[in-house]
Design goal:
The chain has 201 residues and is of the alpha/beta class. The protein has 8 helices and 7 strands. Helix 5 packs antiparallel against helix 6. The longest helix has 16 residues.
């Protein structure tokens, strides 16, 4: 039931359903890129053993970070683990929608949606910092991540921004080395790779 309930909030797409660890490309110009390989290994390690762990991957656009989010999500779901894979903009849009609906049902109410996000067995949050920042959005994201931080709930975060540049309270939590592994993905833009090195399935 958790898998079904969380599915309606997810940012899964036809493309993300096809993205796996097996088809994540670690080569650039015919040579294995050590940065991409390190990111792949960390994402696989998290997906194989997510309990009480956070993984944060940051770097420029187009470096394969979202592929690793989707791959971790697919891996965990195949193992029967309930996950929520969602972008920060989609997460905030879902909560705004629930405020506007003013529904009394648990799944559609603001409090219900917020609770499901905060307590998801595994949260995979893509594109943190891509959302339009405001006092409300900063407060909501902090509430979610602080809850998960205090309860040591498995969380994978991807962002284009250096951790130090994020909202200070969030930045502090995602750099706690007792809980988090932070990896910089400084690999070249996937979109610029040779055509034969691009493969999604």
């Amino acid at each position: 039931w958790q898998l079904h309930a969380l599915r309606s909030f997810s940012s899964r797409s036809m493309l993300s359903e096809q993205q796996t660890f097996m088809n994540f490309q670690v080569a650039f110009d015919g040579e294995v890129d050590d940065i991409l390989r390190a990111c792949l290994l960390e994402a696989e390690d998290f997906a194989n053993n997510p309990d009480h762990r956070w993984l944060v991957i940051w770097g420029e656009r187009g470096s394969g970070k979202s592929h690793l989010c989707a791959a971790a999500d697919n891996h965990l779901r195949q193992a029967g683990v309930a996950t929520l894979f969602i972008t920060a903009p989609d997460l905030l849009a879902s909560l705004r929608e629930s405020l506007e609906m003013q529904s009394n049902t648990e799944q559609e109410s603001y409090a219900g949606r917020l609770r499901m996000i905060k307590t998801a067995p595994v949260l995979i949050l893509d594109d943190l910092s891509a959302e339009a920042s405001s006092p409300w959005s900063d407060s909501v994201l902090f509430e979610i991540l602080d809850y998960r931080y205090r309860n040591r709930l498995p969380t994978m975060i991807v962002t284009n921004s250096p951790p130090d540049s994020l909202e200070p309270r969030i930045s502090s939590r995602i750099q706690d080395t007792s809980l988090c592994v932070v990896v910089e993905n400084a690999a070249p833009d996937y979109r610029r790779r040779p055509r034969h090195e691009k493969r999604t399935g």
